Amino acid sequence: MCSGTARAGTLESSDCLVTVGPGSGVTLEYTGGNFFLFRRRTQAIVNEILEARAVENAFVSIQDQGALEPTLRARVETALDRAFRKKGDV
Amino acid sequence: MKGARRSMLYIPGNNPGMIQHAPVFGADSILLDLEDAVSTGEKDAARLLVAHFLKVMDFGALEVTVRVNGADTEWFEADLEAIVPCGPYAVRVPKCNGPKDVQKADAVIKRLEKEHGMDEGSVMIHAMIETALGVENAFALASCSPRVDALTLGGQDLTADLGVPKTREGAELFYARSRVVIAAKAAGIASFDTVWADIGDNEGLLEETRKVTGLGFTGKAAIHPGQIEWIHEAFRPAREDIRKAERVVAAADEAKRMGRGVVAVDGRMVDAPVVKRARRLLDLAALYLCETEDPS
Questions:
Q1: What is the pTM of this model?
Q2: Does this complex have an ipTM over 0.90?
Q3: What superfamily would CATH give domain B7-235?
C-alpha cells in the first residue's frame, strides 16, 4: 500500500521529476515539451512497472524534461520504492 | 591501441544528462560515481539510474567502471547487487585500506556472477587508495585478487588523512604516487592518478599529468570533460621518440626474420624490454594519428 507521497528525479534537462502518491486506481499525469511525442511510451512504461509490482492504486505525476527511457524507468522505480517504504519513511 | 586508458572521466551517477552524453566527451574510460558525487539522500536514485543505463546504453569503446560506496557503508552491498549484474567493466572500491576491503567486494561479485549466469571473473575491481594505511598496503591490494585490474590514487582524501594541504606542486603526494605505481607495475596492473581539482588551470593539469606519466602511471582521472584533451596531450609521445621506436621495432622484426637474437639500433645494442617499450610507444602514438612513416 502506498503510504505517502514521494518524489524522484529533477527538473534539469534530460531528467524528469516523478511524484508518486496514493490514488484510487492508476492515474498518470504527464507533462513536458515532448508530450505528444512520448506520452504513449511513457504510459506504457509506467503501466509495465506498476504491473510488475502489482500496484493497482497510485497517482503518478511525471514532469518530463527530455528523459531517455532508462532515466524514466529509474525515476519511476525510485519514486515507487520511496512511496512504498513503511510509513514515516517517505 | 586496444584498451587505451589515458583518461578516466568522473560522471556523477545521478546525472542522466552527463551519463547519456558520456561517449562524446572523448575520454578513454568513464567512472560512473555512486560515492562522493551523490548525496546521502540520493544514493537509491543514482544506483537505479546507473543500473538502467548500463543495461541498455551502448557506450562503444568506452571502458565503463562504477565507483560504489565503501565496503564499510550501508550502501556497499546494495550497490554491488544492482550494478554487477549489469556487467560493467569494473567496480571501483573506494578507501581500500587492505586486502579485506577488496576481498569483501570480490566475494559479493563472485556470488552475483554465479547467480546471474555471468562468467566468473568478468567484472574487475579497481582498488582505490586514499589513506596512509592503503598506501602501505599497496602491493597487497594490487595482488590480493585476480580481479584487481588497477590501483587508483585518491589525492584529496589521502592528503586529508595525512593532515597536509594538497598543493599545486604535489610534493606531498610524491611518495604515495611512487608507491602506487611500483605496486601496480609489480602486480602487472594499471594505475590511475588522482584528479586535478582546479578546472580553470589546465596548464597545471598538463604539467602534473606529464609528471605522473613520467613516474609510470598509465592513466589519470578527470573531473570535467574539458580536462580530457590536456591529459591526452601529456601522454602524447615526442616525435623523435616515435622515430626511434620505429627503428627499434623494424630492426627487431628484421632480426627475427633473419634468425638473429641480437639487435643493434643507432650503434647501440637493443634488448627485449626496449623492443617491448618501443612497440607500446608506437601503439600509443597511433592514438594520436601521428604520421609514423618518415616522409623522406
A1: 0.89
A2: yes
A3: Phosphoenolpyruvate-binding domains (3.20.20.60)
